[in-house]
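Hey, can you fold this one?
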Amino acid sequence: MSEANVLDDLIESFINYLLVECGLSRNTILSYSHDLQTFTSFLISKNIADFEGVRPDTITSFIISEKNRGLSINSITRSIVAIRMLYKFLLAEGKLQVNPFAVIDTPKLWKRLPEFIPVHKIDGLLSVPNIKTKLGMRNKAILELMYATGARVSEVVAIQLDWINLEYSYVKCRGKGSKERIVPLGTKAVEAIQNYIKTARPKIKKSQDSRYLFLSKAGRPLRRENIWVIVKKCALKAGIPGHISPHKLRHSFATHLLENGADLRSVQEMLGHVNVSTTQIYTHVSKQHLKAIHRQFHPRA
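Sure. Predicted structure:
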């Protein structure tokens, strides 16, 4: 039996175990199966005939190989989780004696700090839309709302007219798992949204028939892809370098709040994070900012 067949047979046993005993979703199992096939291809390329021959440095080499292929940290971490689970299964079944993962962590330390737009460039970005046009007024409202609330792009496109309360300056966002939260709106965002609702939105086709806040010029609810295009075009016109995405506005919202003294729990609630540990990554960004300020201005830095 070839090396590939031996490895494939063990993986097939593991996948059957996941199907029958673990009850994982079809998508998760397909992802794990793909990750394990990628791993076995890597082993064969290194002339490693079986899982018993894998050592900690083999795992490290695999991680580096995947990173060099351009995979995201999330994808690599998922692969390592799948391989780790495979080894636990094979050890429990008595098909292996050594676990190379005993001294291996997931590559969480590689996780990139979230990129954000500096405060001095935010004003330029928010000033790009031409508010003399109905779509420019809409785009201005979108950008102001995203920076004011840190809302995800999927949450922005889902906002309905009755979720906005301009009198009390807040918006309802429906996040992951359909969990709802109330997020405050600043005066600039309230002004931009008010102008859009009163002046621009009524001029959009069939706007009176839609309950959604943001509409395309044809009167349909905007899609996430539309928001991406709007943000990227405005960033380009504002002269902001690099890859600018709607999520970078979310990162900027959180980072700027913390840099100006907001407490972590409040930012967590506004972002809609279930665990505060997810929000804590922004404190690292703030520390990076403080170090940069210290290096720039301290006479003995």
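The chain has two domains: 3-106, 119-297. Let me know if you want another pass with a different chain boundary.
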